[in-house]
Amino acid sequence: MKLILDLDTGIDDALALAYALALPDVELIGVTAVFGNVTRERSVENNRNLLALLGAAGVPVASGAAHAWAAESYQPGEFKYRIHGGNGIGNVALPASTAPVCGTPAAEFIVEAARRFGGGLAVVATGPLTNLADAIRLDRAAMASVGAISIMGGALTVPGNRTPFAEANICDDPEAAKYVFESGLPVTMVGLDVTMQTKILEKDIARWRAIDTPAAAALVAMAEYYYKNESEDGTLGGAIHDPLALEAAVNPAAFSMLPVNLTVVTEGPGRGRTVGDMERLCDAEKSARVAVGVGAAAFVEKFCGAIADLLARG
Ligand code: RIB
Ligand code: CA
């Protein structure tokens, strides 16, 4: 399967990137960068540096949206710095990649890949859905041919993590997320309903620590920062949000899915909340599948083992 990751990198985005490189049968053909955990520029830089660190500097990184559809600029707030550090990757300083930034803007990059690979392509978006919405707006037919679109975002059966109702990625661009869900394209939503069940702790990364390479040291430091800081109440354990959205694209059988036509609340205190669309509630055809159950322990084991194998390869 060819894969594009759309990332607002972010520690768990970085872990999703490593997971993509670790998975057999997945060919990462590009990374598109979006604002979110960090600025768009920082996301581009983090992606390029991480790819170089992991021996994949040749994977193109395309630059995408710098802010939400309804905004004119963006700066990450305290909430993001607490979870991901000042540079998005736990304040870990990576050597600067010398690979050039891809000349094609993110949305065009995604659409070109959709036209070329169709059902052989998966797009996994783990930040605000702005790039994905832009790609659908650019060429809906091409995006409808994509084999799998999986997003990390939303909260259907549990409270939000940004507001009592809303998850952070959706909250960062509710209008774009609404556009994606209402486009009618088949989208798998991997939200807090399941990602809060998959947490990483020291015991899980112990085997990464045993590997003596710069890449292993960097990922250990990022994961450690994350599991100590992700939770607002100081409880240890970092939710493996973004890698789980990738898992849903490559291994949907590991999830219980609820078919539902989704939309996003864009007004009032519920702004950013993912809910069933009353206009399409009775339609026989449901465009979204919401992950509501996951084999959490098996996933954490698979994820940590795959990253350990990648790091051990050098
Ligand atoms: O709510 C969790 C999501 O917000 C994750 O994608 C994390 O990286 C941040 O973007
Ligand atoms: Ca993310």
Residue stretches low in confidence (pLDDT < 50, at least 5 long) are none
Note the total helix count: 13
CATH class: Alpha Beta
Name the bound molecules: alpha-D-ribofuranose, calcium ion
The amount of beta strand, in percent, is 15-25%
- In the CATH hierarchy, what is the superfamily? Ribonucleoside hydrolase-like
Mean pLDDT: 97
Structural class: alpha/beta
**Distance between the ends:** 23 Å
| Overall strand count | 12
Shape summary? globular
Determine Rg (CA atoms, Å).
Answer: 18 Å
The largest β sheet comes out as: 8 strands, mixed
How many discrete structural domains? Answer: 1
Helical content band: 40-55%
- Return the string of H and E elements: EHEHEHHEHHEHHEHEHHEHEEEEH
* Arrangement of strands in the largest sheet: 3-2-1-4-5-6-12-9
CATH fold name: Inosine-uridine Nucleoside N-ribohydrolase, Chain A
Q: What is the CATH architecture term?
A: Alpha-Beta Complex
